[in-house]
Design a protein that fits this description.
The structure is a single chain. The protein is of the alpha/beta class. It contains twelve helices and eleven strands. An eight-stranded mixed sheet has the order 5-1-6-11-7-10-8-9, with helices on both faces. Strands 2-3-4 form a three-stranded antiparallel sheet. Helix 2 packs parallel to helix 9 and helix 5 crosses helix 11. The protein starts with 20 loop residues before the first helix and ends in a 19-residue tail after the last helix.
Length: 339
């Protein structure tokens, strides 16, 4: 999903927060390790917030760790005959939309469920909704992040893997925007330490190592504090986002900074033990990748996403993963981006 940010499972950030193509790939790789720690984070946070739940869920007794508050049912999406009639013959003949995804990046795309092998996340749900609208089955295939874009066409019909849309990537593939992601802050529930993102000098701030939130965001803020003769920021850098979140829950840091999608998921997974502070900033679009030589398919995907936005399905999906802040109203094919 893009920026170099942090995943609720402890991965480096992904979308626009990440730095260029290669750095973002590295971040995604580290993000995979975090996903494996999602259950641990939930368990630790629940313990720290005095919650008890035999299942270790951050939601309720019937919700497993890593699951959305309310599951999205693709069966609720009806096929649109007009859009379905525009499906390319090669895809229609096999009846399945094959999607490449690096399923190591919660809450967008990751493996979970009872077997820890079921593709989940808002990106996965959106893929299923697109398939249902086009009257197609959906096959989410786990892939190495770096191998998805080169395999579009021969192997995958689409790539849904939290790709930030960059000018570099636009040279190789088409993109349909479906989300906006950026940076934001979180504090303990009720903000007992009265933290403000506008006054961070002298505060203790948690951040995941290797993210753009660490550098240049916090680095620049810290330099400004020192130049102004104020107390420097106590920057607590940790390898895993799960550890940063746990520090915030137990009150050993004043705030944490991360990618907006990760903050929203952390709020959900901690059952509200942490809350957002301030608005999302430094946003950039995230997109669905489509083969460069198939502009017609890109247009069809754009129309399909637009329909899902209009009928409320899109909102339901983002709401279930506590990421409505990233919602857009106008999906575009190859939108103009700054970098």
């Amino acid at each position: 999903m893009s920026k170099s940010t942090i995943t609720p499972t402890g991965q480096p950030a992904h979308m626009e927060q990440r730095k260029e193509l290669a750095p973002r790939n590295t971040a995604r790789r580290r993000a995979g390790a975090l996903i494996k720690g999602a259950t641990l984070l939930t368990t630790c946070v629940l313990a720290l917030s005095a919650c008890t739940n035999a299942s270790g869920s951050a939601q309720n007794g019937s919700t497993q760790a890593g699951s959305p508050a309310v599951s999205f049912d693709p069966a609720s999406v009806k096929a649109d005959e007009t859009l379905a009639s525009q499906v390319p013959a090669a895809i229609k003949s096999k009846g399945t939309l094959v999607i490449g995804s690096d399923t190591t990046y919660a809450p967008a795309e990751f493996l979970g469920g009872a077997d820890n092998r079921t593709p989940m996340g808002y990106g996965v749900d959106l893929a299923k909704a697109i398939g249902a609208t086009l009257d197609l089955k959906v096959d989410i295939q786990t892939a190495e992040f770096t191998g998805i874009l080169p395999a579009l066409g021969p192997k995958y019909d689409l790539g849904i893997s939290s790709f930030s849309i960059t000018n570099e990537r636009l040279k190789a593939v088409n993109f349909v925007s479906y989300l906006s992601a950026g940076t934001t802050w979180a504090v303990q529930k009720g903000n007992p330490k009265k933290f403000s993102p506008d006054d961070v000098c002298g505060k203790s701030v948690g951040v995941q190592t290797g993210t753009t939130q660490e550098d240049p965001d916090l680095k620049t803020r810290n330099d400004d504090c020192i130049k102004a003769g104020k107390q420097p920021i106590n920057v607590v850098t940790l390898k895993n986002q799960t550890d940063v979140t746990t520090r915030l829950v137990n009150g050993s840091i004043d705030a944490m900074i991360a990618e907006s999608t990760l903050i929203g998921y952390a709020v959900q997974q901690t059952n509200g033990a942490v809350e957002k502070a301030g608005e999302v900033y430094n946003t950039s679009p995230v997109g669905i990748a489509v083969p460069k030589n198939d502009p017609a398919l890109a247009e069809l995907v754009q129309k399909t996403v637009a329909k899902l936005i209009a009928d409320g399905t899109y909102k339901t999906i983002l709401d279930s993963w506590n990421n409505a802040d990233g919602a857009i109203t106008n999906p575009e094919v190859n939108p103009t981006v700054k970098s």
